């Protein structure tokens, strides 16, 4: 099966996710700069989520580029990832509109954690199909950064029940860890 349709569909879904998020940004009630202040939590939530969707889009592109072909399992694993990523706009809006309330920050963390799990499932499904000696398997290796991210998300979810600000800081740290694109796959592709 050709992977072009999978890439195009995934790009379309991620574009819609970003569009939905930006549509949640409302125009200020007044005409003065001070009127922007109530929108600050919504804007910060949007920026963080935009960064996350961008990170997933970039790494998803590399992941699919490394795949030689796709099968039904890869299609379902990809849909699983897209499902969790499609929840980012709702959790972002809830978090921003309620000034980073604990429950909203917890749900946001769960969505990020499950997105990370879904990405690993897709990654492993591709490796199973292409083989342990595939380019992707060699590039990923032990995936310390991925495992560390999942651990930090889980820690942040637990902490969010007590202090949502520390959790938000952890979410930001994980985003910063991935802000520079993961070049492991690119390097392996150049080496072959």
TrEMBL record:
<dbReference type="Pfam" id="PF06736">
    <property type="entry name" value="TMEM175"/>
</dbReference>
<keyword id="KW-0472">Membrane</keyword>
<protein>
    <recommendedName>
        <fullName>DUF1211 domain-containing protein</fullName>
    </recommendedName>
</protein>
<feature type="transmembrane region" description="Helical">
    <location>
        <begin position="6"/>
        <end position="25"/>
    </location>
</feature>
<keyword id="KW-0406">Ion transport</keyword>
<feature type="transmembrane region" description="Helical">
    <location>
        <begin position="77"/>
        <end position="96"/>
    </location>
</feature>
<dbReference type="InterPro" id="IPR010617">
    <property type="entry name" value="TMEM175-like"/>
</dbReference>
<keyword id="KW-0812">Transmembrane</keyword>
<keyword id="KW-1133">Transmembrane helix</keyword>
<keyword id="KW-0407">Ion channel</keyword>
<keyword id="KW-0813">Transport</keyword>
<keyword id="KW-0633">Potassium transport</keyword>
<feature type="transmembrane region" description="Helical">
    <location>
        <begin position="37"/>
        <end position="57"/>
    </location>
</feature>
<feature type="transmembrane region" description="Helical">
    <location>
        <begin position="103"/>
        <end position="122"/>
    </location>
</feature>
<keyword id="KW-0630">Potassium</keyword>
<comment type="similarity">
    <text>Belongs to the TMEM175 family.</text>
</comment>
<keyword id="KW-0631">Potassium channel</keyword>
<feature type="transmembrane region" description="Helical">
    <location>
        <begin position="152"/>
        <end position="180"/>
    </location>
</feature>
